[in-house]
Specification:
Distance between the termini: 34 Å
Helix content: 25-40%
Number of helices: 13
Oligomer: single chain
Strand order of the largest sheet: 4-3-2-5-6-8-7
Order of helices and strands: HHHHEHEHEEEHEHEHEEEEHEEHHHE
Mean pLDDT: 91
Shape: globular
Largest sheet: 7 strands, mixed
Radius of gyration: 22 Å
Number of strands: 14
Strand content: 15-25%
Low-confidence stretches: 1-7
Length: 385
């Protein structure tokens, strides 16, 4: 089980202190900490009373709200989606160009890069989220649950399968099982692999993934720091609110393995993967609502999941506030709603900016204010922070 964010703070401070003293700061410091989140690093230093160190560590990448921030892509926090940076997408696309048939598991920006390059190979993307492709019919895009619902007609079909799963052990193992099922015997699988600093259990999780790789591959290698990620929209907002510029900081290694010729398909246990979240749009923004009872008892229709803010402090699944949130947005909001189905109905009735206040008019005072903040944060292309 992942440890809470607070449990990793001591390690971060101990490692960061001598690095900052040696003038290793900004993105260089983040990279030295092997995947620790910038917000967690800063929070750890401040909680340890190291205010001067925190200021020195983030001086070159600091930002001071208020500011007006443009959202260019509305990304999905429920799927833990981080987009490949353009350079990484092009590099991996070039690696894939020599294969005649390619399946991508959860890598839509890589799919777009390969389509732009007009490769002659056959390319399929399997993903839960159709956000990048919903305005058009895209050949090769299959919307499905990658962990358990890739259609059987694709078994043993592809020369290459590339996967970029959420960075949690259970999902890695399920996605690897899917990749093994749809790749042909003797084919190649490439998978992103997280760095060890993302959480206390990451080292053990990484070893378990590599142990699985040893079982399913005839041979494999790990390319260090092969993938860089852009900052998704929800994390951009959360970093700015923490006083940190949304600089590119996340990276991953890349496992490249050749599957055995005598591969044996392993049974994949039934798994719905995601809890039942539905999506609604408010203007430019995306709202994700988890149906069912709220996890906490509350008198008001809407409450903040964080104690004092409508935004989550961190996108991490280990963030206790995220566990309380049954309403999240592409711009980093996290709220708790006592009646999610009614909230979805209210959002469906918003056809213009004026409707935001109308739909919230019957709520209690606190909920009405939160609903208004949420609506007007999501409606325009820019967000005021």
């Amino acid at each position: 089980m992942n440890k809470p964010i607070t449990d990793i703070r001591g390690n971060v401070v101990d490692i960061a202190r001598p690095l900052i003293a040696a003038s290793v700061t900004g993105t260089s410091l983040i990279r030295h900490l092997k995947g620790a989140h910038p917000i967690e690093i800063k929070s750890a230093l401040i909680s340890a009373g190291e205010l001067d160190l925190a200021e020195r560590a983030f001086k070159d990448i600091s930002v001071a709200p208020p500011c007006l921030h443009e959202i260019s892509s509305e990304d999905n926090p429920i799927l833990s989606f981080w987009p490949f940076a353009d350079t990484s997408a092009l590099d991996v696309a070039q690696m894939a160009s020599r294969f005649s048939s390619v399946a991508l598991l959860g890598a839509p920006t890589l799919f777009s890069a390969m389509r732009r390059q007009r490769h002659s190979n056959e390319i399929y993307l399997f993903d839960c989220d159709d956000y990048l492709f919903r305005e058009e019919t895209v050949s090769g895009f299959v919307r499905c649950n990658i962990a358990s619902a890739v259609p059987a007609k694709f078994n043993n079909k592809f020369d290459l399968v590339i996967g970029d799963p959420p960075w949690y052990l259970e999902e890695y193992l399920l996605w690897l099982a899917t990749a093994e099922r749809i790749v042909r015997p003797g084919g190649t699988i490439m998978f992103s692999l997280f760095p060890e600093g993302i959480r206390d259990s990451a080292g053990a999780d990484k070893r378990a993934i590599l142990s699985t790789a040893e079982r399913i591959f005839a041979e494999f290698s790990v390319l260090d720091s092969a993938i860089e990620y852009d900052v998704p929209s929800f994390e951009q907002v959360q970093m700015i609110r923490a006083g940190i510029k949304p600089v590119r900081w996340r990276y991953a290694h890349l496992i490249v393995g050749r599957i055995r010729m005598d591969k044996k398909l392993r049974a994949i246990r039934p798994n719905d993967g995601l809890e039942r979240w539905i999506e609604r749009r408010i203007g430019n923004g995306r709202l994700f609502i988890k149906l069912g009872r709220s996890l906490i008892e509350q008198d008001d229709f809407l409450q903040t999941a964080e104690s004092k803010s409508p935004f989550l402090s961190s996108p991490s699944r280990r963030n206790p506030s995220r566990l309380r949130a049954n309403v999240m947005s592409s711009r980093g909001h996290g709220l708790s709603c006592s009646n999610p189905a009614l909230l979805a109905e209210m959002v469906d009735n918003i056809k213009s900016g004026d409707d935001i206040e109308i739909q919230g008019g019957g709520l209690d005072d606190s909920s009405r204010r939160l609903f208004k903040v949420l609506g007007f944060d999501l409606w325009p292309k820019f967000i005021q922070l």
